[in-house]
Amino acid sequence: MRQQLAEIEARALAAVAAAASAEQLAELRVAYLGKKGELTAVSRMMGGLSAEERPAMGALVNQTKDKVEQALSARMAELRQAEQAARLAAETIDISLPGRAPQRGSRHILSLVQEQIEDIFIGLGYRIAEGPEVEYDYFAFEALNLPPDHPARDMQDSFYFSERMLLRPHTSPVQVRTMQKMQGELPVKIISPGVVYRRDDDATHSPMFHQVEGLLIDKRVTFADLNGTLLAFARQMFGEERQIRLRPSYFPFTEPSAEVDISCFNCGGAGCRLCKGTGWIEILGSGEVHPHVLEMSGYDPEACSGFAFGMGIERVAMLKYGITDMRLLFDNDIRFLHSF
Fold first, then answer.
1. Helix (H, G, I), strand (E, B) or coil at 216
2. What are the tens digits of pLDDT across the range 322-339?
């Protein structure tokens, strides 16, 4: 039996050392230490030994089992360590490789268009004036010939905080503030770009958008001056071949008033889908400053006159760059923004 144990031990240790996987070690454990394993079979043979031989042989069997168990555990640890080393080697990140460089930002299309408009009018001698976005009702409406019961107020869809304060629905209050600050001094020649707010939201409207309004007050300012100014703007913004036309309209703060169209830059005036077959595209509103507006801001309508105009920066951008949905300007999609 001693010889048999020695042979079993030698074969078991050799098989364990040659095992290449955890599955093979599990099979060897069953083959040598399981209920039907070789060492278990030897243990069952001890019943045929004498009482004097049994203790010594039992101790020898247990020693052999311990050696096989230790060999199995040691080999399992080696295999796990090798497996971990292989996985780490396969998953290693080479930090010496170049990373992804951060993308450089660029000017937003609305900022670009606003700056183009500002540059054009600064070149014509205008200066930029700014005012608060939270405005008094007086500056937003009353001083612009829109008393509290005037029906044209309903066209503005304003955001009110109280009866006296609101988010400005246009940048016209800047014109009023400028006139009152200058206290009758001439000339007044400003543009007022900025954010405005109205309760409107669809493919061509936004509850927050941008406007540029212009104001010129001086002696002997006529409608011809307005026409020439807007023609110069249209040609610098949309191309030297552009023409404009003024259509009679109504605004409470100007009299007479006119909607301004530019000749279609897509078809050259022949008629297309963009201009709806008319050859013209509406771009802004304008008119001679109403005498009441001049009087309320400290100017004598008998001694001076002026004109005003206003346009949406989003509309100019959409026309200039062929954008069909205003909401694209505010979605913050970097693919869209990078196209400009």
1. strand
2. 888 888 898 888 888 888
CB 162 within 8 Å of CB 202: no
d(CA 194, CA 149): 27
pLDDT at residue 84, rounded to an integer: 87
Separation of alpha carbons 148 and 163, rounded Å: 10
Q: Where are the domains of the chain?
A: 2-88, 109-338
Cα 90 from Cα 333, distance rounded (Å): 37
Task: Tell me which CATH homologous superfamily contains domain 109-338.
Answer: Bira Bifunctional Protein; Domain 2 (3.30.930.10)
**What is the model's pLDDT at position 222?**
94
Structure pTM? 0.67
Query: What string of DSSP letters covers 264-282?
Result: -TTTTTS--TTTTTSSEEE
Phi, psi of 94 (to 5 degrees): -80, 100
For 152, the token pair is 């044209």
| C-beta separation of 312 from 209 below 8 A | yes
Q: Under a CB-based contact definition with an 8 Å cutoff, are residues 175 and 192 in contact?
A: yes
What's the pLDDT score for residue 290? Answer: 96
The letter for the amino acid at 56 is: A
Query: Which amino acid, one-letter code, is at 275?
Result: C
> Tell me: the pLDDT tens digits for 18-32?
888 888 888 888 887
